[in-house]
């Protein structure tokens, strides 16, 4: 089991070990691929765009300084936005159905407005995706029964006594699973999700 006394971002900035970079990529690649795939004209480029985003992230992240809540998410959104703009420039050279390019360009540019609906959706999807992938990382490190108690009580919202009865364990076991795994997931996403 990997202990995460420092946030993933801090560990990467401090010494950038391969396993920390792998963890960041494991958390972020699915999110970025899903986001890029929401743009129909860019679906065929999605993997390449994600790769380009990761290259920029690897280059720029060691110098990233967290300044406020949500600053990493904004940092990442700006990288995504710039790579989408580059993809649009490449796409502009191909024949497109009239209006599709302009519509896509408008959608992408909405990401530059921190108050836009597109940015709010980006932020929501980011937080959900990061939580889900961090939870999967934690899940691999715990016993199946512990995860099941956590999932039923903390994620699904079932009553602790009911979960204890279903799993034939004490209520204390269910509450400890919730407490420990919530803390582990928070450690995993510290600095990534606020």
TrEMBL record:
UniProt cross-references to Pfam families, sorted A to Z: Sigma70_r2
Entry keyword Lipoprotein: no
GO BP field: DNA-templated transcription initiation
Domain of life: Bacteria
Domain RNA polymerase sigma-70 region, chain residue ranges per copy: 25-93
InterPro entries, alphabetized: RNA_pol_sigma-70-like (IPR039425), RNA_pol_sigma-70_dom (IPR014284), RNA_pol_sigma70_r2 (IPR007627), RNA_pol_sigma_r2 (IPR013325)
Matches recorded under SUPFAM superfamilies: Sigma2 domain of RNA polymerase sigma factors
GO molecular function, one term: sigma factor activity
Keywords assigned by UniProt, alphabetized: DNA-binding, Sigma factor, Transcription, Transcription regulation
PANTHER family: RNA POLYMERASE ECF-TYPE SIGMA FACTO (PTHR43133), RNA POLYMERASE SIGMA FACTOR HI_1459-RELATED (PTHR43133:SF8)
Record protein name field: RNA polymerase factor sigma-70
Source organism: Stieleria maiorica
